Amino acid sequence: MVSERYCVDSGRPVHMIPGDRCLMHGAELTMCTTAVRTARCAHPYRSPNHPTPTCSECGKTIEEG
Known about the structure:
Blueprint: E1 3-7, E2 13-14, E3 34-38
């Protein structure tokens, strides 16, 4: 089972990198309150100019094809 960490307040995925926050909370001083759920990010925020496209919301590499 693939899981993702998500913000309890916004429901948005949060990267697994310490200190990351969801897009709603951005640069706030306090961390998002997070929990873990089955992965469901639809990767709406892609990095098309990066050699390996990634989702800026959940941080996962996006498989092309």
